Each structure stands twice: as C-alpha cells, then as structure tokens.
Amino acid sequence: MPQANAPEARPDLAQVRVQIDGIDQQIQDLIRQRAHWAQQVGKAKGKLAAAVDYYRPEREAQVLRRVVDRNDGPLNDEVLVRLFREIMSACLAQQEPLKIGFLGPEGTHSQQAVYKHFGHSIHGLPLASIEEVFQEVEAGHADFGVVPVENSTQGTIQSTLDMFLTSKLKICGEVELRVHQHLLSRAGRLEDIERVYAHPQSFAQCKAWLRQYLPKAEKIPVSSNADGAKRARNADDAAAIAGISAATVYGLKSLAGPIEDRPDNTTRFLVLGRELFPPSGNDRTSLLVFIKDQPGALYHVLAPFAKHGLSMNRIESRPGHTGLWQYAFFIDITGHAQEDAMRRALDEVDEFAQEVKVLGSYPVAIA
Amino acid sequence: MPQANAPEARPDLAQVRVQIDGIDQQIQDLIRQRAHWAQQVGKAKGKLAAAVDYYRPEREAQVLRRVVDRNDGPLNDEVLVRLFREIMSACLAQQEPLKIGFLGPEGTHSQQAVYKHFGHSIHGLPLASIEEVFQEVEAGHADFGVVPVENSTQGTIQSTLDMFLTSKLKICGEVELRVHQHLLSRAGRLEDIERVYAHPQSFAQCKAWLRQYLPKAEKIPVSSNADGAKRARNADDAAAIAGISAATVYGLKSLAGPIEDRPDNTTRFLVLGRELFPPSGNDRTSLLVFIKDQPGALYHVLAPFAKHGLSMNRIESRPGHTGLWQYAFFIDITGHAQEDAMRRALDEVDEFAQEVKVLGSYPVAIA
C-alpha cells in the first residue's frame, strides 16, 4: 500500500519495481546493440573472427578509464569497472572466447586475476607451473597467460621475472588484486582473544585495527601467517592474522575482516601475450636491461629516463649468469615504448647497456 | 580509413567505436539510475538497509526470466543472465553485502555456484564442511549458504539431505552448474591416443564425441575419473576423460574439451536460508515426508499431488532411525507451498504421513 507522502516515507515498492523493470529493459536493449557493434569490429572477410584476433587491451583500458571518469556514484569505481569488463568480455566472446592460461588449480588468486582482467566470458586453462603458462602461450595453446609477479607479503616472485630472461613473450597487461587480512580464531568472540599470531608484515598491515580493537592482546610474531593459524588452532584465547582461505584449511573462524589498515594491500599479476599493443594513454613499460660490470654503468643506464621526464616505478637486480651477462635489471617506467620520450630514452640507454629488451608496454591497472 | 560501401566491406573501426562509446555511456547512466532505485527499495526508516533485509529471491527470478524472454540475441541467455545477476548483485550490495557460506576452500564448484547465483558483489565465507555451512547460517553468521545436493556422476549427496532431518533451515533457491568433460593426456596429439580411461558414466556422457574422434581407441572403464587420469599419466598413447581441474592435479593436458554430448551435464546446489519466500511464478517445493511402515503408505502420500495436477520431479528414500520414524522421503514437487493446489495436496498428505516438513519453495534454477 502506498504511504502518505511524508519526507521519510518508504517509497512504494511496486512503483519502484516498475521503474527498475523499465531500466532493465533499456539496459538489455543497449547490451544487444553493443554486442551487434562488437560483431562488426570482429568481422573480417565477412566472417566473425575469434576473440584473439580483435582483442585490444589498449582500447579496453580506454573504455574503462572513461567509465571511472564518468562515475559519480552511487556504485563505486571497482564495481562499475567489473560490470563493464563483463559486458566487454561477453561481447568479445561471441565467436570463439579468449583462452587464458594461469597458474592453477582453479580457485587460486591467479584465477581471480584472470576473471578480474578478462571477465568471465573466457576459457580458462589452469596449468601446473608458471613455466607452463609461458610455454602454453608461446605454443599458441593459450592466447594469453596470467602469472603473479609481486605480492605484498612475499615481495617479488623471482621465478616469474627469470622466465623473461629466455622467453620471447611480451607483457601486455597488469592486474592488481586486493588481498584481505582476517582475524581468525577458534574462539567465538573478540573479547576472548589474549594473543595474536602473525607475520611481522601482517602486524604492520593491521596496526590501527589492532590498536583499536585488541589494544591489550599480546602480539606474537611468527615466520608465516599459516604458521600463526596453526598455533591459533590450539587455544581458546588466541587468534591469527591471515587470509580468509586459511580459515577453512585450519578449521578457524573469522572474528573480523578485512582488518588491514590500507586498502592497497595487493598482489600484482602480469598478462603475457605474443605481441606488443599500441599505447592506451596511460601505460607502463617493463624493461630488461643487461649491463656490464663497470663503474657507473647503472647510473648511465638510468640517467636517460630522468632526462626525458620518465619516472621509474620499480627496479630489481638479478645476479649474473657467467659469460652471457654480468648483471640484469628489471625496470618499470611510466610511459609507452612507442611514445617519443621513451623512444629517445631507449636509444640513449642502448649506448651504455649491453642489451635492452622491451618486455612490454601495457595499460596501468585499472580499479 | 572508411572503405567503399560494398556489402562485404569491413565497417570503419573508428565509427564503430564511437557508437560503442555512446552505448556505454547510456548503459552506465541506466545502471546509476538502477542503483538509485535499489537504494529506495532498501531504505527502511530513512536508513539504508543491509542487503539481507531486502534481498528477494522470487523478485530476482522474475527479473531474470524476463531477461530470457526478451532475449533475441546475439548474446546467449546464459551470458545475459550472468550480466544481469552481476548488475543486481552490485545494486543490492550498496550498504552491507550478503554474506554467503559455502563448502570451501575457495575455487570449489560450490564457490562457482555462489557467484553464479548471487553475483560477485557478496562476501563469501569458505567453510570446512557441509555441516558447518548449516551451522553458520543457523547462527546468523552467514545470511545464506550454498551446498551441493546432486551431481551427475555421483548422484545424490546424502550428507546434505540428512542435514535437513534435524535442521530448521529452509531451501530458498537452487543453482545448476554445468560440469564439463575433457580428454586429458600427456600426449600432444589426438592421433596418438590408442586407449581412453574413464568412469563408465563419463564414457556414456561422451559417446558421440568418442565415436567421431576416437573410433578406434580402446575404452577402458575405471572406478573414477581421477583413477583414469592417474593411469593416463604413465603412457604416451593413453588419455583419460575428466574435468579440466584434473589436468593440473595430474600434470596432463587437455587435447579436447568440453567433449560431453549433452550440455545438461550438471551439479545441483541448494541455497539455504532462515525463512521462506513468496512464489516467483515458476517454483519448486522440496518436502521431507516421514511415513509409517504400513501397506500402501507411500502410495497414499503421493496420490494427492497427482490428484491436484502437481508433478513430482524427484523422490529419494532414507532408511529409518529407530523409534522416531520408519521411513523418510525427500520429494521435489513443481509449484509453491503457498499456491492453492499445493496447499490442498499438503493438507491431504498430512492425513497419511506421520509428519510433513516443507523444506522450501523456491524459484526453479535459471540458465
């Protein structure tokens, strides 16, 4: 029954539903139109192409940035970007969906990263190792691959970086996945907790929360969060800080979560492909630079980027393999390798480095 | 460059992108409006309610059925239903998202079923056992739970049904998840395969495919597909039929998949909640009927449904517990317990049964 029109009156449910039904009909009609236009993009020689033939990461990044720019609520950017990724994914997959290799088994963070980046209208291939992800993309069995490269508790995943020393694959995207911390315990209530186990890094991540909610609890550092969860399993007054999946593994319950102070606690993944894509307007370039062991070599390699106004986001050195090279550096720079400033900087770096490989230029991760 | 307007000419890419950009802008504006209206539904006493307070499965089912009815391509029903589930999920989660318990760890089919039914804008709680899923929903730590109840290779999951013998929870939804079969092998090519291992049921599911692509291969029945995958690991001329996740576990590759003949190879899940919801227009009712061991008892219990034109989709008997009851039957009937025909039938059944429990009336699974 409609209520009197008082300012706090609850709106008439039936009326609201009629409005929503009308909106849904329009959304559906627009999605239909969008799918038709996407077919037009995918039509080569009058035949509908496989998704890999017309997938353009730089174009997708531009579309999503526009979504974020236009957004003035009530939904947040992350949710809207997810909805548009799914719409694009569905439109792209009309003929033959993208095949994406990832570090399996199903349910890993890598699989989450695949869906976050490519949407759900893809064919996922869970693989047994990072090496196999590279191989399957190289062999063409997968169109793209997704591998973890950095995470906030373990740092850089060296085995991923090392694959680039020999692989010809290109980086054509990055994905950032938030990692959430929970307070896990077999106890039922927060008030019962007198000790908390966690890796020092996890304590640091949840400092403000612990100060507010467990100011008197003893904080006991352990070598890994899994180790902390194991210990918490044996006591009624103990808890551990860990990801929610540890709750299932160790038979604990989440008393609170997410409890990390900063929402930017993330794992970073790289998207591997066989070719480089054009600039999207906000890109990052990953370089592998081999240099000779001589005084000032690194300085000479880095100077050109500073000179051309390009900022370095990350540098990671790798020990030398005898004979081939003495040092290798993985360097991330803001910008795209096809842009003028980067081109000029790369030319100059070339003079001082033994070899410079552009591993990829790709859109900076969105939401 | 725009081409001449020949019938087979590829449309101008820039033009198409302008069209798509305009469509995206409209879709985004409509999603914004939808989210605003959803807030209106969720506003109780001028304050935005938690999702669980205004989640209505029967309404969602109606919205999705309308999406399917309206659909005339090019996207298929399943993809469109997924997009609309995500849009509804995002709109619902604006204040506090639904908390959904499921049989963990993350990455299981149960988690896939959760996302399929509730979209991704929820808070998932991976739990260690089916029993725990029931407990967490009963205790109110989870708003809903999702548990498997039947799958096409193993049949009914008795432990799930048995929970209803003592639990007060209600079934308020069902989810059907397709399960795909792959041909897994360590060999690189289909031509090398001379033997295929699989559970007899899996052979039956892939009969047409095997006849077409591996007519000469020897078919060797094994006790489980996992066992077949293990055997295939040891030979270059052998393959196994199994789900894709077995590829990672046993270090095999998929030579082909999905290879099942019928696309309706599914696992069925139940959604558990604490209350019953009104009819959606196309519902199923699950009953638990305890009957005395006397001649014709089952016949008398089933007759009223037939009489009132209600079809039975499924019946499953459970052995008796001494003293309490002699036989229990789980029965699924088309229709909703609040509808007249079902009401009358239930009244009549009551006369012959020792006890009749309505476990739930819920929308039939969509796409």
Automatic annotation (TrEMBL), chains A, B:
Name the residues that span the membrane: none
Checking InterPro entries in the record gives: ACT-like_dom_sf, ACT_dom, Chor_mutase/pphenate_deHydtase, Chorismate_II_sf, CM_dom_sf, CM_II_prokaryot, G/b/e-P-prot_chorismate_mutase, Preph_deHydtase
- List the SMART domains: CM_2
Q: Please list the residue ranges annotated as the Prephenate dehydratase domain.
A: 99-274
Residues of the signal peptide = none
Localization recorded for this chain is: Cytoplasm
Record-linked Gene3D superfamilies: 3.30.70.260, Chorismate mutase, Periplasmic binding protein-like II
Known EC number: 4.2.1.51, 5.4.99.5
Q: Name one GO molecular function term.
A: prephenate dehydratase activity
The record's principal subcellular location, in a coarse class, is cytoplasm
| Catalytic activity entry | prephenate + H(+) = 3-phenylpyruvate + CO2 + H2O; chorismate = prephenate
Tell me what this protein is called: Bifunctional chorismate mutase/prephenate dehydratase
Source organism (scientific name): Lysobacter yangpyeongensis
Q: Identify the coding gene.
A: pheA
